[in-house]
Amino acid sequence: MKIIFHRLFTRVVDMREGGKNMDAIITELEKKGDVNEMKVLTLQRQMKMLREQNTTSRMMMLQQASNHPPPSNQLALHEGATGGGPGPALTIPQQNLNKLQAKPVPPTRVTYTSRKLIIQQDTDHKKH
Question: Where is this region: Disordered (predicted)?
Answer without folding.
Answer: 63-91
